Amino acid sequence: MNEIVTYTSPIPLLAVLVSLAAVPLIYASSNRPNLREFWTLAAAFIKFPLVLSLLPDAFAGRVAEWTMLEISPGIALQFRADSMGLFFALVASGLWILTCFYSIGYVRGANEKKQTRYFASFAVCLSATIGIAFSANLLTFLIFYEILSIATYPLVIHKEDREAMRSGRQYLTYALTAGVVLIAAIGLTYHLAGTMDFKAGGLLAGLDLDANTAKVLFMLFLAGVGVKAGIMPLQSWLPAAMVAPTPVSALLHAVAVVKSGVFGVIRVVGFVFGPELMHTAGLHLILATFAGVTILLASLIALKQDDLKARLAYSTVGHLSYIILGVALITPEGFTGGLLHLSNHATTKIALFFCAGAIYVNLHKTKISQLDGIGRVMPWTMAAFTVGAMGLSGIPPINAFVSKWFLCRGALQADQMIILGIFIVSGLLNAAYFFPIVHRAFFRKGGSDLDHHGEASPLMVVPICIVAALSILLGLQPNLLFNFFDLASGITESIFYPASTLVGLGGTP
Amino acid sequence: MATLELPPRGDVTAPVHQTVNKAGDPVAGAYFIQNAYRDAATPNMVTVILADYRSWDTLGEVVVVFAGGMACYFILRRRES
Amino acid sequence: MTPTRVDACHIEGMKSQTDSPIIHVCARGLAPVILIIGLYVFFHGHYSPGGGFQGGVLLAASFLLLRMTLGTQISQLVMPSRLTITLSAIGALIFAGTGLVAIFAGGNFLDYGFLPVPWFDPAYLRNYAILFIELGVTLTVMATLVSIYDDLLEA
Amino acid sequence: MNTLQLPILIIIAFLFGALLIPLLGYFARRLGYITALIATALSLFFSISGLMHVLSEGRISYHLAGWMPPFGIELILDPLSAFMCVLITGITFVVLIFSGRMVEHETPDKTISYYTLTMLLLAGLCGMVLTGDLFNLYVFLEIAALAGYALVAIGDKRAPVAAFRYLTLGTVGAAFYLLGVAFIFISTGSLNMGDVFKVLPLLEDSRAVIVGLTLIVLGIGLKMALFPMHAWMPDAYAYASSAATALLAPIGTKVAAYVLFRVMFYMVDPDFLRHDLHIAQIVGYLGAIGVLWGSILAICQKELKLMLAYSSVAQVGYIAVGIGLASPLGFIGAILHALNHACMKACLFFVSGSLRFKVGHSSITDMNNSLRKTMPWTSAAFVLAAISMIGLPPTAGFFSKWYLALGAIEQSNWIFLGVLLVSTLLNAAYFFKVIERMYLKPQPRVAAPSEEPSEDPVQELTDTTHVNRNEAPASILLPTLTLSLSLLVLGLANAWIVTHLILPMIPDWL
Amino acid sequence: MTELMENYNGFLVPAISFIQGYYAYLFLLALFTIGLYAMMMKRNLMKKIMGMSFIQSATIMFWIVAAYKEDATVTVYHQPLGLENPDLYLNPLPHTLMLTAIVVAVVTLGLSFALIVAIYRRYQTLDEPLLLERMQ
Amino acid sequence: MHWLIEFTLFTVMIVAALVALGLRNLLAAVVTLNIFSFMVASTMVSLGAIDVAFTEAVVGAGAVGVFNIVAILLTSRKSLD
Fold first, then answer.
1. Which positions 406-425 of D are in contact with C (Cβ < 8 Å)?
2. Is the CB of B79 inside 8 Å of chain C's CB atoms?
3. Mind listing the pLDDT tens digit for each residue in A428-467?
4. Is A501 left (phi over 0), alpha (psi -120 to 50) or beta?
5. Is there a domain that residue A287 lies in?
6. Deepest in the core among A451, C154, D117, D342, taking most CB within 10 A?
7. Is there contact between E and C if contact means ≥3 C-beta pairs under 8 Å?
């Protein structure tokens, strides 16, 4: 176990900038679709290795850092690839590659307009997401958070019809309000602490904060990041934003944007307030209440949805709160479980969304009631869908089971039987709203209109299968490929045992 | 009511009429009376102040006049000749 | 309210020559007197109330009198409309130029003590410099007032 | 020339420009524009070297006509005024490049007098900024105001009425100011701001001084369009010609705000400002109301220029809020916002000007998504400037709000904080309304007759992708893009600006 | 009788000296208010301009009153009086300033007339209700 | 009792101002305005500001008077109030 050492390296910056640099290229080649999509792919293929290359250092307790410029006296625009950020960046950039291929298949298949703008916005969104992941202080975080809000707007209104515009307005209202509240929260934090740097264990930890101040501040933060994380009174933009093309829903509204919100919650809990302050000021109860209510309500609402993407959206709302509830437990196991669920939910949910998109492009069906018998037409797709559904319901071989397992252990550790109950009940509800779809797909006879259709284009099916396979692999062996498990437990350790301030070299304490 | 705090009309002891102000700096009015003739050999103090001590104000005034003329020209003339 | 014929007559009446011989003669006689008074006020500004501005207004008054009585056409001969703006710019330039000369001579802007006129002692240098810049003031004020009158009638 | 002459050179470059343009324009009309450009470039050069001189060697006190301050008039070039001069001349330079074509287009037979008035306006504004004498400030205020009234009066059919309202209110403002100066003068015996600063603490609790200051603030508030006194501004800016609006809107109100700064922070005794006198707070609260009121009215507007003008009411409110905070952070926020807002507003008015130039109107209701085809760069510049106006990072607009918000938090002034945050949303409401129309609203079924006739009307109805590009000419487009990009640069470089330019201007006592 | 005298000394003398000292300010305040009233309430633009000129005159007079000294002469150097005692001459500074202010006021009035003419040319009226009606 | 003269002048000044505002015939109002202006000038003389008084007289009777009349003749002579 060694001390954390920071060293200067431009890699975090490059990882942020690479997709941003692709934007002008994408615009320049707007008349040549193949070249344009080549730039997107190139950015994706450069970004992921860049992020990956930071991983060994993180395990060795070395954190790459890059200070760009002072953005306000005493506060720099600073990137730091600590293990928490790396965790999120890996998920986002890794899934971007798959989404790229899928997007190409999707937009060509669906004959979308404005493809250039679509790819450009997508690239900006990814930059912002990686920026959020790597930001070393609250102001940097805020900047990328707002960029993400704005860059997603063109994607939400992509269809440019009345409904899309209404959703876009709703989305902007929520996102900007959140940003504004976040400004207040960050300003207050800066005023109280005199610093903005994220610190494992909490930058407000040693400040002897008054409980009421802490509560107000926490509520501000919660409102700020909670909007993106879809916590219950603030969730309604998310189902509305499902008018966006499916790859957008898949990557952004299941992974990048909403996970940025969740990531923000984790940052706030673990790096701004710290477990101790959370306990002493009773903040974890507030968080847990919100998250618990969200899980149950979202699952119940999802049951009633007939639109496939809407059901997935509410399921997303519920699962985001899983992560938050895990974090709110303030136990090491719960925290680890939450982090793992962040990555696991990403892979499974993206598989589900990909499937929904493939169904839409191939069969132009969006309603669940229309899905009778499509399992025979699109076997691979629906198989992947089944894998995702199993995962989210918490059935063992899939990766989401692992995280749920840890979450439950965390609840036990914290002696919170109600929370344990919530986990179990919502697992059942998940199964209740996913398996009817699977049932319809495979065990009901479809209409005659399905006869002339086959599987979707390979550009879409292959990514779907890869994600599904990934879900299973990660379920069997959580440490495979990217050592997500070690990373998660390392983060947990650094937050809960800040005395040692290190990232574990594999393995829990 | 605030006028009540002003010195009454014709009060010789008003701050404006002193040679030094409360902070001990000289006051302009008395200096002008005492030195205008000496500085510019012109008996009319107002002229001296107008055109020498505060000639920048007067230049401003001339420019105001010019601006007024130009403004009327701009607004009313249909075409520049 | 549309422009009535009366109003139109006024406009025409103001631009053309007046019919009344009394006004005609009086104005013709009065204008030069006002001109002289204006010049006197301007030159005597050092010793009594008066100076550039008042002189300029009086000069302008004499021209305006001519314009009002003789009509715009004839009074162009005394003071052409197209010259007014130029004259007023020249007047202001005289003032500002004096200041600029002081800068080039090494002093601050408008510091007449530095004007490169060697044969005066400073007080008298200031005295004459004041007269000189008052000339600029007079020109500008006179020209501008005439110009404003012309502009009003132009409409 | 001696660097100590810099303060006067900044002003007389404009002054001589103004006086020479009618003379040179006599020979060739084109010379007017060229002279204006040269004068502005010279003044910009002098301002920048003045700023550098001030930062390295301290303030310059320039004694006009060689007389010491209480007797003669003093020009002060300190970091604040130098910064303001650079701002004014820099923005104006860009605006002049922009207005070359615009003026030819809008007032083709009045270019000479237009540029003369422009130069006079700038001479007046620079004079106001640099002077250290209360009465001299009045004179230059009137120069700037007269030129401003005239510039506003030409444009729309309703422009003269707007200009008349501007004139009456502006004159009342100037009269208030002059009366306030009379109170101060009578109580202290001096017109020099430095002298007044020294004497005011010795006059204990004099009501005359308080009334004088109130009158001054009232007068300047009128010029600055502070909330209840903003009635003249929207109409004046909306009905004036595009070139005139682009010139006046970014800097006109800023200079009035600057005067408020001078009076509040450099002339008045600090204890006075903080404890006895609540003028600063009142200004702040008025500004806060103005922020909300201006934004709400801006949402209701259907015409782009009018909307921008109302948003100016709101933006002036931010500066007033910064004054009301009376703390270093508020000071930084207000000054930074003056800079940012000047760039943003200039850019936005450039866009509305280009729209009028090319499309013929700037009505929001008539906008549709053909704009993104015909004028893609202009639309992009608008979006960037709008984002900055809303105050989203990393554009410039965010950071001024950020400092103001920090200042409000520091003083636990939750009302100001709330206003700042709510206004962000209101700004977003009206700017996204425009952006939505610019990019998303489908073209009408029947092409409007005022639009340029297309060769094949049927095709235009069915297919929007074949709209020809019809971008504004380079001399209009380039300044627009430059300013919109400068917003990003200003945002990223704001720390540098704050530490190197703004921190030196904060008075010690603050 | 003595009562009346006491009354005179105790009340009237201060009252008269108060009036003597401040009546000018109060008159000017009234004039200023009249001007403001005219500008706000009068509907004819010409009347508004008159109100404006009242405001300007009031402001200018205010300064002139402030420059007044009891028992002092005009601001022209007079040999027998000498220059040493400033109390013998009126304060020339406000006079100078007001000279400038008057010029500014005149030019502003001139410009406002120009605007009025321009407005009349477009709308054929100077009365605000009609004007607003025709502006629609 | 010098100040009583001024007092009278001030009174006439205010009355002239009110009358000028009240008159519906603008030409008459302008003449009243000239009376007002003359009163101002007289008050200034009484206060010893001869330079200013001279200017005010020249301007009030000359420039502003002429402009006023021209403006009224060019526009309308009647006023609503």
1. none
2. no
3. 888 888 888 888 888 877 776 666 777 777 788 888 888 8
4. left
5. no
6. D117
7. yes
Is F9 within the bounds of a domain? yes
**Model confidence over A194-240: pLDDT tens digits?**
888 888 777 887 777 788 888 889 999 988 888 888 888 888 888 88
- Are C109 and D1 in contact (CB < 8 Å)? no
Which residue in C has a C-alpha nearest to residue D63's C-alpha?
Answer: C108
Question: Residues with Cβ < 8 Å from E8, sequence gap 6 or more?
Answer: none
Q: Do the Cβ atoms of A71 and D432 come within 8 Å?
A: no
Residues in chain E closer than 8 A to F56 (CB atoms): 60, 102
Task: State the total domains in chain F.
Answer: 1
Residue range B32-55: mean pLDDT, rounded:
89
The mean predicted confidence, pLDDT, of chain C is: 85
Integer Cα distance of A469 and A473 in angstroms: 6
For A370, the token pair is 């229309």
Q: Nearest CA to CA, how far is F47 from chain C (Å)?
A: 14
Taking only the tens place, the pLDDT of each residue in A76-99 is 888 888 888 888 888 888 888 888
Which residues in chain D show pLDDT less than 50? 447-465
Q: Which residues of D touch A (CB under 8 A)?
A: 387, 390, 392-394, 398-399, 401-403, 405-406, 409-410, 417, 421-422, 424-425, 428, 432, 436, 440, 442, 492-496, 498-499, 503
ipTM over 0.85: yes
Taking domain E31-135, whether its CATH number is 3.40.50.300 is answered by no
Please state the domain count of chain C.
Answer: 1
Query: Searching chain D, which residue's CA lies closest to the CA of residue E100?
Result: D139
Task: Give DSSP secondary structure letters for D255-306.
Answer: HHHHHHHIIIIIIS-HHIIIII--HHHHHHHHHHHHHHHHHHHHHH--BHHH
C46 lies within 8 A of chain B by CB? yes
Tell me the pLDDT of chain D averaged across its residues. 87
- Phi/psi at A305 (nearest 5 deg)? -75, 140
Residue A501 has pLDDT above 80, yes or no: no
Size of chain E in residues:
136
Q: Do chains E and B touch (3 or more CB pairs under 8 A)?
A: yes
* Contact check, Cβ <8 Å, C45/B44: yes
> Does residue A11 sit within a domain?
no
The residue of E49, E74, E103 whose CB has the most chain C CBs within 10 angstroms, and thus the best one to mutate to test that interface, is E103
CB contact under 8 A, E23 and F51: no
Residue A425 token pair: 């009940």
Strands D60-63 and D74-77, how do they pair? antiparallel
Model pLDDT for residues D116-154, shown as the tens digit of each residue: 999 999 999 999 999 999 999 999 999 999 999 999 998
